[in-house]
Amino acid sequence: MNATHTVVLAADDLSVFGQDPWWLVVIKSVLIFAILVVFTLFNIWFERRVVARMQHRVGPNVHGPFGLLQSLADGVKLALKEDIVPKAADKVVFLLAPIMSTVPAFVAFAVIPFGPEVTVPFTDITTPLQLTDMPVGVLFILAVASIGIYGIVLGGWSSGSTYSLLGGLRSSAQMISYEVAMGLSLVAVFLYAGSMSTSEIVAAQERLWFGLILIPSFVIYVISMVGETNRAPFDLPEAEGELVGGFHTEYSSLKFALFFLAEYVNMVTVSALATTLFLGGWRAPWPLSLWDGANEGYWPVLWFFAKVLLFIFMFIWLRGTLPRLRYDQFMKFGWKRLIPVSLVWIVAVATIRAISLEGGIDRTYLLAAIGVVAVLFLVLFFVGGAEEEAAEAEPEDQRHGDFDAFAGGYPVPPMPGKAVQGRTSVSLYESSPTLSKEQS
């Protein structure tokens, strides 16, 4: 199938959108909102249970069966707390910031396909299990998700707190860095699908998922989506040891709950986008795909949310396993690893795709070439960082050499392993003849 034919199919398939009656559009919108809110309550409970199991604890198990109502109880508790607004805060912006973070998280789900066309119960209306779609649906998601960062930045700025401001600035720098890599990882998907429409990308994965043939893009996207959502180990805007609580330090009650809701809805959004672009969307995995009715009716909704839940588990697993990165390492990883690898990978995919469309290479050889390139990129991706760290490491003789406590003009204590005047360590008052023990 050539690129021109693919575009024609996209135009024909997109014609099914925009034909629903107004009441059906309202029902779809309410259902998406309700699903995301319920999914958020479930994810909070799921995270606490999984992390508790990893740490040999019980987790929530009192409120409701298996503690399922614990998240609802926490939400009610937040709503009933006192709403505090700092005196130094810009009250209007302080109030609007949580809303600006939450609304885009819900709007981004408007173009996510949950399933194929179905017949609405008790009617003869046929409609796709998707609110709407457009020729640039994926770009719409990226654009809307980017608006949410304004709520975080403005929330940190309007609080009148240095810690909150630093958290907001960190979040904006983090979003810019990792959204570039995320966008570049999607270019290979566009080249293979011949469209930026989410429904067309799912249709293009009928035979083979893009996550299998575009492994580097998939890996880069997964890393970028963790950084994009400010989740551990990339939760630097909320570093408790450095910024108290980050951009939401001064928030309480429902406004804090909105920031919390936006974070968890964004987790579902990026997971749903990963499912749509790389794991076949709502299509059933093998061997369930061998069943003729697996991709018909409302069954695909089950496969879709099962894949999304798999990514949610990955978020939780990373949080309970990995320590938080240092900020300079985190930014360096995004700019010096993810973005260069993405650019080279796009050139390789575009070249292979052009040769394939012209009939100059067999599909078997094409997949083999992609596999070889993917392995090379993964090796460079993980091994290159270790070599650079080894090259930047301080030489052994310098690490254990003599230490001059007054080299910078002020007496400072030596680092572990350093020696001052032939001794392993020396206290501050001993290294300075002008300071008494009481003054130090």
TrEMBL record:
Localization in the cell: Cell membrane; Membrane
Gene Ontology CC: plasma membrane
UniProt keywords, alphabetically: Cell membrane, Membrane, NAD, Oxidoreductase, Quinone, Translocase, Transmembrane, Transmembrane helix, Ubiquinone
Topology term for the membrane: Multi-pass membrane protein
One record GO biological process: aerobic respiration
Region described as Disordered: spans on this chain: 408-440
Enzyme class: translocase
InterPro entries assigned to the protein according to its UniProt record, in alphabetical order: NADH_UbQ_OxRdtase_su1/FPO, NADH_UbQ_OxRdtase_su1_CS
Catalytic reaction(s) noted: a quinone + NADH + 5 H(+)(in) = a quinol + NAD(+) + 4 H(+)(out)
EC id: 7.1.1.-
Main location: membrane
TM ranges: 22-46, 92-114, 134-155, 176-196, 208-227, 256-278, 298-318, 338-357, 363-383
Gene Ontology terms, MF aspect: NADH dehydrogenase activity; oxidoreductase activity, acting on NAD(P)H, quinone or similar compound as acceptor; quinone binding
Reported function: NDH-1 shuttles electrons from NADH, via FMN and iron-sulfur (Fe-S) centers, to quinones in the respiratory chain. The immediate electron acceptor for the enzyme in this species is believed to be ubiquinone. Couples the redox reaction to proton translocation (for every two electrons transferred, four hydrogen ions are translocated across the cytoplasmic membrane), and thus conserves the redox energy in a proton gradient. This subunit may bind ubiquinone.
Entry similarity comment: Belongs to the complex I subunit 1 family.
SUBUNIT field: NDH-1 is composed of 14 different subunits. Subunits NuoA, H, J, K, L, M, N constitute the membrane sector of the complex.
UniProt-recorded name of the protein: NADH-quinone oxidoreductase subunit H
Annotated organism of origin: Nocardioides iriomotensis
